[in-house]
Amino acid sequence: MSIERIRNLIARDMDAVDAVIRAKLYSDVGLIRQVSEYIINSGGKRLRPALVILAAGAFSYSGRYHFNLAAVVEFIHTATLLHDDVVDASELRRSKATANALFGNAASVLVGDFLYSRAFQMMVEVDNMRVMRVLADATNTIAEGEVLQLLNCRDPNVDEENYLRVIRYKTAKLFEAATRLGAILGNATPAEEEAMAVYGMHLGTAFQLTDDMLDYSGDYQETGKNLGDDLSEGKPTLPLIYAMRTGSDEQAAIIRNAIEQGGEGGFGPVLEVIQQTGALAYTRQRAQAESNTASAMISSIQDSDYKECLLQLTTFAVARNY
């Protein structure tokens, strides 16, 4: 089953999600509409809302609340992107100028706040306390992850355990929330709901680890990012952490200095050390382990096209080049 088949299976549902997104983006304030529509339409994979749809479908949900919750998840994700790009002083995302580069930092932060608050308005409409708790907890955890990542920047002493904690909080938590929400809507048993949530957490971790790897091996035309963007921001991602841990003292010093200086020492020497130490292969191995765990978590869920799509996503998480 290809990614295209996944898209085809949920195409009508995703069209309905897009309709909700466009309707809920409306504001009398023109700048809010302009910035929101720019970032929403900037070519993202819509993976997180798709997970809500797929998880709900796996439990034969037949209502319409999954469209609203999928849009809520996308709004929360988009708000984090707006804030992330300001914090990181990023100028490029998905081969396009970031919102802060076009509209300024103030507009990006404030429109991010609008999207967060609109998301909470929408989740109230579902009138389900469980749903509200999942999303409120996820949003709070994501914010903690953002702060943890900020503390880790330019710190070469961050170890693998602490870095994975950032991933679980900052990235994987929204994947986990998306799949849990679908299970809740589908009236899954407590065990099934927990299995689906853990699936989402491990899937999200696999996706982030692959992103870390692509920052040192990807193609700009595919990823929409320049190689070494994480290094330029002083982020000690897993390829760097592993290279420092297993390389020689001289190799570790090259990585350490690059993290502390935000890559100003040059990308070439760092990439050479990463390649010499097998850091990318190790990162892929860790991503594959997360992917395998995600697959195992939903093995006992009733077979369906939706379950097959969820399983296919675990393969895509590691095999992708964008």
From TrEMBL:
<comment type="function">
    <text>Supplies octaprenyl diphosphate, the precursor for the side chain of the isoprenoid quinones ubiquinone and menaquinone.</text>
</comment>
<dbReference type="GO" id="GO:0008299">
    <property type="term" value="P:isoprenoid biosynthetic process"/>
</dbReference>
<protein>
    <recommendedName>
        <fullName>Octaprenyl diphosphate synthase</fullName>
        <ecNumber>2.5.1.90</ecNumber>
    </recommendedName>
</protein>
<comment type="similarity">
    <text>Belongs to the FPP/GGPP synthase family.</text>
</comment>
<dbReference type="GO" id="GO:0106350">
    <property type="term" value="F:all-trans-octaprenyl-diphosphate synthase activity"/>
</dbReference>
<dbReference type="Pfam" id="PF00348">
    <property type="entry name" value="polyprenyl_synt"/>
</dbReference>
<dbReference type="GO" id="GO:0046872">
    <property type="term" value="F:metal ion binding"/>
</dbReference>
<keyword id="KW-0479">Metal-binding</keyword>
<keyword id="KW-0808">Transferase</keyword>
<keyword id="KW-0460">Magnesium</keyword>
<dbReference type="InterPro" id="IPR000092">
    <property type="entry name" value="Polyprenyl_synt"/>
</dbReference>
<dbReference type="InterPro" id="IPR033749">
    <property type="entry name" value="Polyprenyl_synt_CS"/>
</dbReference>
<dbReference type="InterPro" id="IPR008949">
    <property type="entry name" value="Isoprenoid_synthase_dom_sf"/>
</dbReference>
